Amino acid sequence: MNIPPTPSKPLRLLLVEDDPGHARLTREWLRDADPFGFAVTHAATLAEARLRLREGVFDLAALDLGLPDSQGLATLKVLRQAAPELPIVVLTGHADESLGAAAVEAGAQDYLVKGRFEPEYLLSRTLKYAVERHHLQQRVEAEREQAQRQRERLALAQLGRSPAPVTALLYSQKALADYDPVLFEMLVGAYHTLLERAVEQQAFKVEHAVSHELAALAERLGFLKAGPRDIIDLHSRALEMTLQDGAKYAAKFYADEGRLMALELMGYLVNYYRRFYRDVLHAGSAEQGGNA
Questions:
Q1: How far apart are CA 285 and CA 251, in angstroms?
Q2: Whether the predicted model's global pTM rises above the 0.90 cut
Q3: Are the C-beta atoms of 45 and 64 separated by less than 8 Å?
Q4: Domains of the chain by start residue, with CATH
């Protein structure tokens, strides 16, 4: 995530504009409005803009939708894919309000139609507001996600503290993490590997047999008489390992996929116990029939 610029530092602006004259005017307008407010890097094509994004860090981009190597909203889409967290203000030469509105709906922070604004004032103000609005949106989203994760943790914890969990009620067995720490860490390693594969499958469309392997892991847990609390422990420990590995930039991916995995694993474990009891009841009925 880009660190918000401090008031004493200029905003690092990537100006993506194929017209040299308009690029020069934009620099002059910004300098006239705020002599030390912007550090402008110019790119004349979308390909050059993507190169500049790989080479440096920027606070925002001003993007012309009509470039030699890309036209229209597709230009915005490609730039957003190259820098998902970068606020973008669209500059369009088309006197078409609907195109600007569509750009905002597609992820731009704002838009300006060339030749239809007071450059010395509106351009600078629009760019600065775009950055402030973007960082505010990031904070709100982070707080929303944190609150959602907290609610889910509380719900899972409540499930694990149920007055009649499977492990305690059926087997009077303490949690796997306490009963056999070495075995528990091995299971955490297996779960962690599946979590990595699940994220890879979702992010890069790489096929992995995650569900099949989760079912196999549930069989192992069922054989060890595991319960909901053990799954929560596995999930929490594996997620902790992932964040320690330096993947904090992708924490949302891991949290989202991890929640789905934990629920899927719990479902497989429930099915295991259903089959177990069905077999026990069937064996009991057969034994009674044989004794009759």
A1: 50
A2: no
A3: no
A4: 11-136 (3.40.50.2300), 161-291 (no CATH)
* CA torsion through residues 263, 269, 275, 277, sign: negative
What one-letter code names the amino acid at 2? Answer: N
Tens of pLDDT, residues 244-264: 655 445 667 777 788 888 888
Question: What is the rounded CA–CA span in Å between residue 59 and residue 106?
Answer: 19
Give the model confidence (pLDDT) of 135-161 as tens digits.
Answer: 877 776 777 677 666 665 655 555 445
- Where residue 107 falls (left for φ over 0; alpha for ψ -120 to 50; beta otherwise) is left
